[in-house]
Write a structure and sequence with these properties.
This protein is α/β, with parallel strands linked by helices. It is built from 13 helices and 15 strands. Helix content is 29%, strand content 16%. The longest helix has 37 residues. The C terminus is likely disordered. Bound molecules: calcium ion. Calcium ion (CA) binds next to loops.
Length: 523
């Protein structure tokens, strides 16, 4: 049988994908099997830090991550369902919202590893499955032939890692360690079976400790400040002003690198001190206060956070090179994403949790040879809840009826997918520690958000990203928005029914402390 041209094959594969049929994107030798999956995941990596997302501040060049965008598809609105680490990871594994997979918060939840997950289903279908790096779901990983994970949050320098055999300290910088161990696994796998490798970084999670090779990467040049660095929180719910995640109030000495991170020692510690000690001495001598202190902290935060992203970018480059060196780039789907976005000084904040755009939106890049048009973008609302159905469809496995997401294949093929969702349901629980972000739920559309802060506060916000891109005021009580508000209220109720979030919220969903009484009955 003649081999079709790449163009004809590409079209054929895209049509098959749109029909939910898997394909091998490789040449004829591999045409009998599904592609491999390399899932590169970062923690708290936000679009503003990536040059392929073309942020107005142009904070950092990320050439290797940009390569993925250039060779694949960039999703501009990949939204999370509950903007915090563990819950996002549980949602990715299960394809379900927090109230269905049972992992609501980082405070007191433990992932029930006996429930169905997409790695388990791939493993049962004969795939090699591995996870290396940050897991953060308390219970041991299930569904993986190989796992080597950080305990809890992990540390940046010389991190202990857990395997089924026990705990062992890995020497080096955590992003490099995870990359090395991922590559080691890729080299010893069975080449005759498809694989799923989840390479999951700790970086750039707090406390944003850079590799020593990246200290001073910015030459002490100032980083552009966000427009809302000094947000006064007027015109919105009291919930926003009650936050405890500001550069002005919550930034610790460890965050500021006024003390060294755990685990660092020897030559690394000497290099660390050579960089920070004179700068810290100048800071202590100047003793800035008020707005000047916030500005100093913002600059220190950006130096450190972006340095961590530089190491993640280098990791992506090394992993892509490894696929090239093994000759498997054309038969491996590469996905890069994060468990949420992050505030880089917007509203004066670091951290995440809120339904606001910076923390709601995660980066998502997919390079699927033969399916994703190179250099393409997609503006549809997709979500972490779509990952499991996408990977199951890739493997031509049946999609369980209780999955709450949808396979991305039609969008990845460049199809307009006219029936794609135009709104998404969001719900955040953890309160009050550690950042005093009120539990809230809401509906998100291309333009608007309707947000309800639960419990005794019982306040609403209506945001309009077109009229107010930085989300600094609520239009909820504006008579001009009355029709919009009613439509969003109806959509929120429709979505709550659709995702079956109608029952009372378990008391422990909010964390260890009692939640203000009005929330006790649920919505
Ligand atoms: Ca996170």
């Amino acid at each position: 049988m003649p081999i079709p041209s790449p163009q004809v094959r590409g079209r054929l594969l895209r049509v098959l994908a749109a029909l939910g049929v898997w394909m091998a994107a490789a040449g004829p030798a591999r045409a009998d099997r599904a592609p491999n999956i390399l899932f590169i995941f970062a923690d708290d990596l936000t679009c503003q830090a990536l040059s392929c997302y073309d942020d107005e501040r142009r904070l950092l060049d990320t050439p290797n991550i940009d390569r993925l965008a250039r060779e694949g598809m960039r999703f501009d609105r990949c939204l999370v369902t509950n903007s915090i680490c563990g819950p996002s990871r549980a949602t990715i594994l299960t394809g379900k919202y927090s109230h269905k997979n049972g992992f609501y918060n980082n405070a007191n939840c433990r992932f029930d590893g006996s429930q169905p997950t997409f790695p388990k289903m791939l493993q049962a279908a004969g795939w090699q499955t591995a996870i290396v790096g940050k897991w953060h779901l308390v219970s041991d990983p299930t569904g993986f032939d190989h796992w080597q994970v950080l305990p809890g949050q992990g540390i940046y320098y010389n991190p202990p890692m857990l395997t089924p055999a026990g705990k062992e300290v890995q020497r080096g910088y955590v992003t490099d360690v995870i990359t090395d161990l991922s590559i080691r696994w890729l080299r010893q796998r069975d080449p005759d079976r498809p694989f799923l490798l989840m390479a999951q970084h700790k970086a750039p999670h707090r406390e944003w400790a850079p590799a020593v090779r990246h200290l001073g990467w910015d030459g002490d040049r100032p980083h552009a400040e966000p427009a809302t660095l000094f947000d006064d929180f007027a015109g919105r719910s009291r919930a926003v002003a009650e936050h405890d995640m500001g550069l002005d109030r919550t930034f610790t000495r460890l965050d500021a690198k006024l003390r060294a991170p755990p685990g660092i020692e020897g030559d690394d510690l000497a290099a660390w001190n050579a960089y920070y000690a004179p700068r810290n001495a100048a800071f202590e001598a100047a003793a800035p206060a008020g707005a000047e202190l916030v500005r100093w902290r913002y600059q220190r935060y950006m130096h450190d956070y972006l340095a961590c992203v530089k190491a993640v970018d280098e990791s992506v480059g090394r992993l892509l090179d490894e696929l090239d060196d093994q000759g498997i780039a054309d038969e491996t789907v590469v996905v890069l994403s994060s468990d949420q976005g992050f505030f880089l000084g917007e509203h004066g904040w670091f951290d995440k949790r809120w339904i606001f755009e910076e923390s709601l939106r995660a980066p998502l890049l997919v390079r699927w040879p033969g399916l994703t048009p190179p250099g393409s973008t997609c503006g549809k609302i997709v979500s972490l809840v779509d990952f499991a159905p996408t990977f199951l469809a890739l493997a031509r496995l049946p999609l369980p009826a209780d999955l709450q997401g949808r396979a991305l294949q039609p969008l990845l093929a460049g199809d307009t997918a006219a029936d794609w969702r135009t709104s998404l349901y969001y719900r955040y629980y953890e309160f009050p520690a550690p950042h005093h972000v009120r539990p809230h739920r809401g509906v998100v559309t291309d333009r608007h958000k309707l947000v309800h802060y639960e419990g005794d506060l019982d306040e609403w916000e209506l945001l309009d990203r077109e009229a107010d891109p930085h989300e600094t005021r609520s239009f909820h009580d504006d008579p001009a928005y009355a029709d919009t508000r009613r439509a969003l209220e109806a959509e929120l109720e429709r979505l709550a029914r659709e995702v079956d979030d109608l029952g009372p919220v378990p008391r422990e969903a909010y964390g260890d402390a009692p939640f203000p009484a009005a929330a006790a009955g649920g919505r």
